[in-house]
Write a structure and sequence with these properties.
Elements lengths: L26 H7 L4 H9 L5 H15 L16 H14 L4 E6 L21 E8 L2 H6 L7 H25 L4 E4 L8 H7 L4 E2 L5 E2 L7 E8 L13 H8 L1 H5 L11 E3 L2 E3 L4 H10 L8 H5 L8 H12 L4 H10 L16 E3 L2 E3 L14
Antiparallel strand pairs: 1-2, 2-6, 3-6, 4-5, 7-8, 9-10
Helix pairs in contact: 1-2, 1-10, 3-6
Bound molecules: iron/sulfur cluster (SF4) (2 copies).
Amino acid sequence: MEKLVRVEQPTTRITGEVTRINMRDRGFDCAGRGDYGDFVKEEYERFCDKYPLSHAMFDMISGFGAMSGAEVKNNRAPIPQDPHMLSRHIKRLGYFLRADVMGICELPEWAIYGVDSEGHPITINHKYAIVVAIDQDYQTMSASTGDDWISCSQSALGYVNSALISRMISNYIRYLGYSAQPHHSGNYQVMITPLCLMAGIGEICRTGVVLNPFLGTRFKAAAVTTDLPLEQDRPVDFGLQEFCMNCEKCADECPSGSIVFGDKSVHNGYESWRIDHKSCTSYRISNQNGSSCGTCIKACPWNKPEGRIHDFVRWVVKHTHFFDRFLVWMDDVGGYSKQRIKKKWWFDLEERDGELRIPKKSNEVNIEKEG
Ligand code: SF4
Ligand code: SF4
């Protein structure tokens, strides 16, 4: 990450005033209120609990949400005040706690939600945001279809670990005598995507979220806002905007048709590919042959394991877009979006009426031939 090219402005162009979003307008809030219909509302009630592993993980996340966190110490610790040194320290701490990618940015006001789910205004006076990103595990992704019974647990892995790490970092900063607040699944007061963009975790891709050059979109992130004096990272440019123009694999494979083909459009003062949140959220919540969906994560050519060949491909994409379509074709030929069924380690199970059963169906597409 430290070797990536940094730029002054994010590759998602900000063309006008970006206004603050209300938490009540998020897809899952809308679904929970019944705005997407009675069936989606009903399925929303069992969304996290219908698979036992995601159930176990979201139990943990609810527990984190209920914690109040450490008191801020009255006396500040005798530590250096150099923002460069403190930023290195906090990032190293994140990696010690097993974060996969760390980044720091100033907290733009437009990245703070306007009102919470109950309609109460949100105010945060912190100047900086520390972003913690967690890989959802390449091996499991390669064994899954992208929207089968493990999908929700893959997301939950990123959510629960980023929640834990953001809580520990926040408490640590408070013990040092500085104000800090964790923002994670079930406890967000800031929008994570713009913070990932500004902190240089990646660029915004066709699916509307940040794509990291080493993980693709196969990660979830949490943040810590704070007044600890920090040095900010700058956004990154590894050639993704042009690559997404030449690719469209996610739009081809999205089971709900929520991802647009073609060009970006301007929305709320910035230029991006705008996904249909209503159809995506509704599909994820009411998937009857699996638990949630990550098909776009699985299909993306940036969802790759570490290795020299992939390092070379990243270098090529950064320096020329002449080969983009060939690389997408190579990705298809390499069968990366196929399900490697031999690596499957989990049980397909579904909880209905308080009992675990073998589900009638599982989304099975593109299974790699055995043998
Ligand atoms: S999560 Fe699934 S439904 Fe939503 S955009 Fe991605 S592929 Fe489409
Ligand atoms: S699948 Fe292709 S178009 Fe979609 S996010 Fe990945 S690189 Fe971009």
